[in-house]
Amino acid sequence: MASDSLFSDRPRKIIITLTPSFFFNHPLTVLGNKISVLRFQRSLCDPHSTSNGFLRELDTAAVGAFPVAYSLFFVKDLAVSIYKSEGILGFFKCLPEYIAYHLTKDLLRYLVPNFFLPILPKVLGPLPSKIKLYNILDTHNHIRFRYEGFLEKNSQTTTTKFFDFYINQVESELNKIVTSLIVELITYPALTIISRMIIYDGYGPVSFHVLFKHTLSVDGILSLYRGFSYHLLSNIIKYIIKHFNRFVQRTLISDFYLSPMFEQSFPVVLSITQSVLNQFSLIRRCGSKIDGFCIEESSINIFRQMPWVSIFTQMVVTIGLLHIRDKLVTTQIHEFNSQFNE
């Protein structure tokens, strides 16, 4: 296969993913980040640390760190305090940096597959064909056969069916997945600095450039990638959720029985898991020796402080409500059909 045809699925233009909802949701991002790391904020954990006293004035004793839903009662007081100390602009903290971060990711999603991935065979030599990178951007010829194979396996269990579907899906979108991995690897340090700026409660203003240099000198360059593994796991779960409806549709086409309980509960479990992983990543990347940020906690210590009972309760209640709703809808449909037949 000619090298030029290997990369025929490259994006033709830069796609900007920023929408008006991004601007309206930013205050929620600010509030959510502050609450999520509250239990590990250095100004509340270390009496000798310096801060602007903003958080110490609040009643934070009963605030849980995970997930945000359990700290909603604290949001009002926090929002009022932000407004009093910083005004309305306090809810749009780091908005320019966040916009630049997302625009950079949009730009890289165009540059990486168009300019970086095509040179991989030249740089790596014969390695791509050994690890099947030769097919990284030219999978359309095989998609139909993969899905035909998926539809033919009607005797599989739900678990096997599920994994077969996502293996096929990953193979058909390998170019996008590799591109996303490279983009996240390049931009994660910027996300680390932005996250720290949002939760910062130290003295004086801090800029992206100054904080970046200070972080390198105090915490080291590797600190910019703290929590990156949890960030990737969160993106993997996000990918699974994104294509779950397609998986359900494929099972219907193939007349494969999919348990309604699995169909309802699995997305809920994934969504809550993704939320927890996002909080893990946020706390890890906000950990620093510098005052105004979070204390440096290991993953084990963060895990131990998770309110697993509350999280499990939320999961069970949500799944139960969905199941009850489905039962009620099914009952109403049966009653309507019986009346219609009469």
Automatic annotation (TrEMBL):
Gene Ontology cellular component terms for the protein in this record: membrane
Domain of life: Eukaryota
Record bears the keyword Membrane: yes
Keywords for this protein: Membrane, Transmembrane
InterPro entries: MCP_dom_sf
Major localisation: membrane
Subcellular location: Membrane
Protein name, as recorded: Mitochondrial carrier protein
Organism lineage: Eukaryota, Sar, Alveolata, Apicomplexa, Aconoidasida
